[in-house]
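Support reply, case 0932

Customer input (verbatim):
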Amino acid sequence: MPHLSAVTLVVPDYDVALNFYVCAAGFELIEDTELAPGKRWVLIAPRGAQEARLLLARADGPAQAAAVGNQTGGRVGFFLMTGDFDADHKRMLEASATFLESPRSEPYGKVAVWQDPFGNKWDLLEQRQDPPPVPEPSFVAQHDKPDRARPRRARS
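Our regenerated output:
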């Protein structure tokens, strides 16, 4: 079965990124293999995660360096799910992680936005045990409409 295994996070320095993600954010190092001088395959994951990984990639060239910290255009782009928000929030604060807001409750759970040293924004998130029902996506409703709702080709 296909699945998403890793997402690349462009960073200015492998070791600075590893220090932050492993020590402050509580990730574990999965693999650190030298591929060529100055280039490594560095995979990290939240402790206990079985599938999704982050591939830390050192910026190579001006275009990649310009993307560091802004890979999602200033939006929260990454979501760190936890089963114990309060404990993880406290541990991250003690390890000098930068939270941009106080924890808040949302319909989907408890959340607070934090930022890595490079500017990437994350949510620390504990999902509600009883999440609200998921509405049917609008694209499904559009697809199920009669043919008159679909554009027609002109007949020749």
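We compared this against your earlier run and they match. Two observations from our side: The CA atoms of residues 135 and 141 lie 11 Å apart. The first helix runs from residue 14 to 24. Please reopen the case if you see a mismatch on your end.
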